[in-house]
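The protein record now logged underneath.
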Amino acid sequence: MWPFDSKRTPLTYDTIEPGTGLAAALKLSRADIIGEVAASNLRGRGGAGFPTGTKWNLAAAARVKDGFSKYIVCNADEGEPGTFKDRVLLTDYADLVFEGMTIAARAIGAKKGILYLRGEYVYLRRHLDEVLDKRRKAGFLGEKIGGVENFSFDIEIRMGAGAYVCGEETALIESLEGHRGEPRNRPPFPVDTGFLKQPTVVNNVETLASVAAILAKGATWFKSFGTERSAGFKLFSISGDCDHPGVYEFPLGVTVTELLEKVGGRNAKAVQIGGASGICVPAADFGRKIAFEDVATGGSIIVFGPGRDMLHVAKNFMEFFVEESCGQCTPCRAGNAKLLDGIEKLETGSCSTAYLRELKALCETMQLASKCGLGQSSPNAFLSIVNNFQDEILGRATAAH
């Protein structure tokens, strides 16, 4: 399936009749539902790429504490710069997202679900509540779903408050519990001790929509897309210096060159894959594949034309991370500020080559020592831009003293 433009060419999701995935799931045992998802090789579509079947299996085996419930949480806190594909799914395919949550609940034995909605998407709240109401009236939510005596599940919507770090699953759970959004120490992991200390599965919007599609059409069908190690199709939010920005669907394994041809990104100088926390791929590497085994992404693709100042691009990303760091751990809190300081020195020609080497070493420390994915991935853009655009960057560094 190839991409659609602003004229709204249908996606693969348009071929999935709402209700068919759930109907198929209700004919299977809980173990067989997890087995089908695992057989599809579906990996998390939010960026981390953790195998969905493995996550569900761990949560299914975990025990509920103190008579509470297991939880299914849909991460709709789409805060990565350059990402807007989940908004399309919530607008046009909310039924499939909620269906995926219901299938997940059946698989792990959860009774309650929460959709954690990005604060800026508050305008979608009414639409999503209406979809939930229709699903309850149709018997797809509530008591005895699909006539199954021992299957009760319902979903509520909670609003986020605009914190980038709450895209990390444990910080999201902290926010749901009414606390400041800060990552937790792990272990324990959410599949064992999550929301309200109960076993919790946190999946991305697109992951859950894909679950509904997989149960409707089968694991073999899903694996007919993509590569051996990166199964399925994927939505991409494409923006920047291209003729046709928008949300596109590609099979995983598409090359950067193929993607640029479809979106009109002629003469691109670089492509930022994975948002601010991703890597900047130079034109010489446009033959690389967008897949878990090569360049992975949660969906953000930003195209940079030949006139872009890559140092300015790096500065823009680092300003974002300095603003969005929760400040809990020193490598992220202090490290991002140091990287921004280095970029500002490069702009004024006062950064020595020795200091630039120190900053690159700092990046490696941050990747190893930061508490969560924000600090671990925030140096990525800095490193890839400095390494891949040395002709622009090093010309601004002064000789080492």
